[in-house]
Amino acid sequence: MNSAKYRAIQAEDNPHLTRIITSIFEDMQVPNEGTAYEDSTIFDLFSSFAKPRSFYFVLEENNLVLGGAGIAPLAGASDDVCELQKMYLDPLVLGQGHGTKLLGHCLKKAIELGYKKCYLETMSNMKTAQSLYLKNGFTYAKERMGSTGHYACPIWMVKNL
Q: DSSP for 62-129?
């Protein structure tokens, strides 16, 4: 029986999400510098997304944390632009539609919070993620937006909400 649910992050989710994220970074050979790998937020997503106009969804199935995704204001951008952040799924659940559902929850929440655009940065070798974003209305941006500090992320995408 599939008992997948998408819920708000809780403090006890932090170590599970950190494990998933760092494991994916290692598997995908993400650089240690200039990417989310060097963000201290990956160790305490609960606190990071407790800030105003931020929200983080967790995928939980059979009492196991299997991934998540969040939205937050895009640093250095206008108030109507959010950033899709820390969207990662355990490889065990890829291809089951969870990425689409997580993204949908994030975009719906972004609209509820008053955002008009959603921006993201990713790595060029994360082709599956890029495909998901394109299928959900994101387009490639010609230039970086805001000031994420992720100078090693060469792919920028944006969606009007």
A: TTEEEEEEEEEE-TTS-TTEEEEEEEEE-GGGTTSSHHHHHHHHHHHHHHHTT-SEEEEEE-TT-HHH
